[in-house]
Write a structure and sequence with these properties.
Blueprint: H1 10-23, H2 29-35, H3 47-60
């Protein structure tokens, strides 16, 4: 998905996304955006990260 580029935000983003998917296995785009709002990414426009979380939700389900 091209979600992670430099790796600076990877640990926080992955753990936050995983925690979200444990609580809500089928989040909406808005719910993913809300969950990740505390994570700073310097490389992407966040859309790729949100797309990757939604894809992970599909594949985990």
């Amino acid at each position: 998905m091209g979600a992670i580029q430099c790796g600076f935000c990877t640990p926080g983003t992955v753990l936050t996304a995983y925690a979200l998917l444990l609580k809500n296995p089928r989040p909406s785009r808005g719910e993913v955006r809300q969950a990740l709002k505390g994570n700073l990414c310097r490389c992407t426009g966040y859309q790729q990260i949100i797309d990757a979380v939604l894809l992970a939700a599909q594949r985990m389900g």
